[in-house]
Hint domain-containing protein (Nocardiopsis terrae), 554 residues
Amino acid sequence: MPRPSKYVSRSDLGWGTSPASRANPRSGLVIHYDSVNQGLSGKDHSACLTYWRNTRNFHTGPSRGWTDIGYCVDEETEILTENGWRSFRQVRAGDTALTLDHTTGTSQWQPVQAVNVFPATERTLVRMQGRSHSSLTTPHHRWPVERAPRTRHDAEHPQPGEHWATTETLTARDLIRAAAPCDHLADEPKWSHTLVEEVARAWASRAKPSPRLREHLTEGVPRHAFLRALTREQLDLLLRTAAPEGSVPDRASAEALQFAAVLAGRAAHLHHDEHGWAVAPDHRSLLPINRDQDGLTLREEPYGGHIWCPTTPNGTWLARRRGTVYFTGNSFMACPHGYVIEGRGLYRTQAAQPGGNSSHYSCTLATGPTDAITPEQINAVRMLRQWLMEPDTSIAGAVLGHRDFISTSCPGDRAYQLVQDGTFTQPPGAVTEGLDLLGLKEGDGIPTPSEGVKAVQRLIVAAGFGEHLEPYGVDGQWGKGTSAGLLAARHYVGSGVTSIKSMTGESYAQLIRACARREAERAVKGLDSPDSGGDGSLPGTETVDVSGQLTIER
């Protein structure tokens, strides 16, 4: 399973690499909580980010030295946007970049949610260099890879192809993807094949284009918008006609030719020598990490420039360095809105469960004794667990509670019940924990507030319709405002009901869909910025140092 789609990395938070000693936890995942109610499920997701930052600020200081970042590339690496290749100084949040859906193996245009740039300082990076590949990355930079079978038996009984590796854990069995068919090509031609061929011939001949062709060419070279509008068949026609051998007269033509090849799903690398410019095709869409086969060398070297990495919904992007192209990745607290938020990072000693800090990863729910544990939160833990069970980290599937290691109330009775009944070890998907909300109705919680009604109201707030609960907010009493908020959430996802006064199965399903849709919109629009809200309150005294993957150390 790929990394959880709703994932906030240390780089997203602007944090450096944890100085914690290296470890390789393999025995499972440990659940934690906060000793004081935080009420995060009733707030915007930005409050979760503020909580996590405050937790770190409260329990760490400058002497801890968290000053470097672990998931980045060097200044020379570029990203492919819909308007061509851009450096880290040129690309902006909101630009559209080509990404890889690692589950389907196809490329997709997606918005750049953030451009994370970190100061120039002395670091040790890893250079991978070969005939068809050039990269310079931090050791923990993440790669979406395919894994070749180890034996003939493996080849006959393959595991799912998509895996994740870091630069320092890549092996000779890993294959880096250099090309992928694009999901977003036109299905129907916008332009005729005749026009495409005329554009290609004008481009190849460098003759002055006719008035009919000028709108598609800039200084004799096809515009990016024209290339993006072509079908796969038309891209192939243009490539065959314009430059069948890959040689072109100038840099602009070479850039356009490589852009067209990428959209057609072909691996193509840019070259320049004394003979001019050329785009060399590579029949392999997957490149081996193999010194003998590709002349690839891997070595550590000092580096003093900026490092950077973009954030995209797929967690991947198409990179280019020294003319070679390849897909690469961006490198835990499970919040009530379904986000996994990184703590110390992969392969780091934990500090939250004495006796299990080097053997188990840990994850805090950031909930207090009576805070609601939302379905999104449960699913986030499930996705985190499955991701950590990938071969790269290969943890066991066991999920334990903090109290399984020492005498403590952590992770709270409600969370520990979910540990014991196997809720966290289920595959990601529909969460039945919401079924205890079914049957709640208008009038419940009056006059004695109901925790179940509070859970419904918090979901209404998460879906973006908390104004209907004013002036009382999340009070555990189902009045007309709660009914109005539930109805608004259902309308938000397309329901045509005109009145609702109880929590039916359909109401619950649509309320969860509304929460997911609202969070996706916020992520795409970049609303989860460090300055976008949160009450800034510090965690209670039960919580101590920031610890391993999404955990806090006691």
Summary: The CA atoms of residues 216 and 226 lie 6 Å apart. The radius of gyration is 26 Å. Residues 505-525 form the longest helix (21 residues). Confidence is low (pLDDT under 50) at residues 58-70, 154-160, 527-554.
